């Protein structure tokens, strides 16, 4: 081992031991170092018999300078770079970015890194605390590396030479990184929109929680029986004959958007899964006249869903740990996995039942034939209700299709289909299941890798006559008695009374904490903070923190209402509106942001607890 290689690897070991280990244990065979016109070393690799240079053969340094000059690197807090090569572009970026920025390098081959360490002095690059190397990274590796880092100022950079050598790999890792940011942004937007709605819905659904059946009683009772999970993708109508033919042979589980359509075709599914907190989803059950289907509802669903559904109702577990205190009074229920879409819940319900195989129908995850939903769905009708002579159905549908940038991927029957980043998140959720019993029998739409795709006419299930009677018996056993219902309400009422007392006391302390945090921010705004004053404020804030820790159930309830605040801080989002502040001032701003959120959450919790008392 040469001194250069040893020094480079030693530097790499200190900050990126996994990358150093991979580079140390491999060879650089297949990577040919060549001398450029100005004497710098550049790598050449052979791909499908074609020789490809990863940097300029004439002047790789000047090439890197031009490349980086187009990026405005100093404006970014996180730079995701696809392809390292010999690192000329990375070295140039490190000279231009801020001291607290992060550079995430996604390189496919350890042999490239090994060859770079053999042929260039990269000690400064490898030892730079701002750089993270991932070699042949998985989706989980990329997500872990990006977790908690700034999202608002992220640059995605594809190294041209590396991309020419393996365009599919580097396009895919950038797609994964962008998907993580998109999912993170969706999480924050969802929390901002729904965190209080979830709490409010759970509270309004307390009578159903006290009196309703436990959906978990169905778990494991349908082992080996096939299931059809029916979503409302545009191609659903093509599969109606198949669903009708197999209604007595499979457990048919419809998502709420598909339930309306199936009933229009005279098909009553065995279960209907509903999880959305918005009132629009309750509209799927308007005019419902009962039936044999069992509603499997999430406690966060809009209360109107349970009011409008006139059939049998069961509930799943409360999905938030911070509201689990309610189940200590009302009883535990079966848990379902959440993937952001009701179809993910419906799939998991089928798995929890023990069903095998689980066939998905209408799971297009694309705008098949230019449509957003199957014809005949409530959302499809809603389009017509909102149209006028200046906004026809075609124009409205087109606006839905263009709300997010189009992504074109391989289709099931179509050569390619139009999807978007939101649906790609759900597609990725199903990809990660790696479930050999999962079959996608959707007529057309996005093809999901790692999932078996089979046309419905190739699926054959044996006749059964016991599914409805089995459901009837299980539902009867899942309903609580009158005595159980009364005991649940009494226990819940006692818990709530205690929570009101402790939350009222905390509310006063949090109002003081907000004022203290404002004082702390003013100390750092001056640039000359009084250390004694700062120490006094921090001590008082510690007292508030201890009060929070000892709060009990009320702490959990408040916590649910401030998840957006917590997520914004822990996931690296900036809250200083881009102004340049010291690190100490930035921490003080986060402190103020947190205590304001907690104070607001406590006020909301007190109003909610008062509402619970009235409901009970």
What does this structure look like?
- The chain is of the alpha/beta class and 616 residues long.
- Helix content is 50%, strand content 12%.
- The strands form 4 sheets. A 9-stranded parallel sheet has the order 8-13-12-11-10-9-14-17-18, with helices on both faces. It has a 4-stranded parallel sheet with strand order 6-5-4-7.
- Strand 11, helix 13 and strand 12 (294-297) form a beta-alpha-beta unit.
- Helix 1 (3-15) runs antiparallel to helix 2, helix 3 (60-69) crosses helix 4 and helix 9 (167-204) crosses helix 19.
- The radius of gyration is 29 Å and the shape is flat.
- Mean pLDDT is 87; it is low at 379-397.
- Characterize the quaternary organization of these chains: single chain
* Total DSSP helices: 25
Q: Radius of gyration over alpha carbons? A: 29 Å
Mean pLDDT: 87
Distance N to C terminus? 76 Å
Q: Largest sheet at a glance?
A: 9 strands, parallel
Output the structural class.
alpha/beta
Task: Classify the beta-strand content into a percent band.
Answer: 5-15%
Low-pLDDT regions:
379-397
Q: Quick one: overall form?
A: flat
How helical, in percent, are the residues? 40-55%
